[in-house]
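In full, the data:

***
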Amino acid sequence: MRDLAAHRVARGSDAGAGNLYRFLLLTNHSGTSCELAGFPGLSLLNAKGAQLGARATFDHSITYTPLTVRPGETVSDTIHP
């Protein structure tokens, strides 16, 4: 079992004009807290492991605050595929 795992991508809103938003959910399966920092990214792979479409990009103009995830806690972030 992984200590921190993405266990599903939940449906978010559809903003129109081909824009989709989804929620990336991460659960801490360990017995200790962990700290997340930085920007999450997601790229889709086909059955052979080859990337589909362009790689994930990040808006580095947005600031972030490190986040502590307690054991058993699930956190989320909005992704715009």
User: Anything to note?
Assistant: The CA atoms of residues 7 and 41 lie 15 Å apart. Residues 4-79 form one domain.
